[in-house]
Design brief:
This protein has a four-stranded antiparallel beta sheet. The chain is about 65% helix and about 5% strand. By secondary structure, it is an alpha+beta fold. It has two domains: about 5-50 and about 215-385, Multidrug efflux transporter AcrB transmembrane domain (Multidrug efflux transporter AcrB transmembrane fold, Up-down Bundle), CATH 1.20.1640; about 80-200, Alpha-Beta Plaits, CATH 3.30.70.
Amino acid sequence: MGLKEKISIERALTKLASFQYRYYKQIIVLSLIITVFLGYGATELHFQGNIAKEMPQDLPVFVLQDKIASKFKGEEFMIIAVCLDKETSAKNIPRDIRDPEIIASVVDLHERLEAESSIEKVQSIAPFFQGGVPDDLEGVKKKLASAPGAESFFNDDFSIMLVYASPIAGLSEEKINEATAIIQNDVDAITKPAGVDYKITGMAPLIIELLRLMKEDMIFTTLVAAVIIFALLVVLERSFTKGFLVFLPLVFAIIWTLGTMGFLGIHISISTVMIGALIIGLGVEYGIFMVSRYYEERERHAQEESLKIAVTNIGASTFGSAATTTAAFFALTLSVMPMIQHLGQTLALGIIFCWIAAAVVNPCFIVFEEGLESKKLAGLLQKWAGKG
């Protein structure tokens, strides 16, 4: 940053400090309104658990992959895995997945799934037994041996049999949850032999499970980082109030970042799920510098002068740091990988909001807090004077 640019920034920040001192209450109200608005935007935030959608879809290799998938696979299947419980030592339970009772239960499940309006297609061994299920295992084996393609539904040791169900709904989280519930209800409704488990799996349920883990991890890591950082700030500042004032810009920055992501349609993915903890770790220094410098100057100067010095000096120096860090993160948007682009966008937004919250909004809360303390002190002095 050149000397002229630095001087111009310092002049602008000096004017900002004067404005903050005069209109700190209005700035606080405006910041809270913006926070509520962007907090609503955070409710529009979506999670992206399908890693394939975070790949560059316009590259020839991915375009070809999509064409092949559309031509030969057609749709995403949910899989019901019918499995023998090999660990049980109970007697009189099936030891071969081709047991007539199991086959009959799969035929029943197939018919129930086909009757569901949200299930477009079902594939299993059921069509091979339209004339009925033989009474013994040998009869089932003979029937399957004469059915071309039947072996594709079994594993090598005949301990697992698969049923494929393709939901019409597509792969949105809500629709997959709905389809999974329907399939589970049908599984619960059929007569199941003892020692046999019916488990729902497939790419779609795996994506839903990944989304669940991402949400839990995001909340957990952000809360842990927030608690640890806040506790350290209280200890370092030797004051709960000062620790809170340092931490406050981070709260604004996180809400503003998530809200902006929600309005811009930037998904939370594997690469951006840690955004909350990163913002807390990267942005905490701005608040530390601002609060510490203000109270240092407050020991020698009046409130307005202390605010001007802190905002001007700390604002200018941290502006350079924030600008260079933001530029580095925005450089990630040049990547061909969407997940790297989104990471750069979210981190850049986070740093920008951290600086704005620390240099523009937080000084107003400092002045407001000091005003409250002065009123409390004046009230105590009046009480003591009255008693005297």
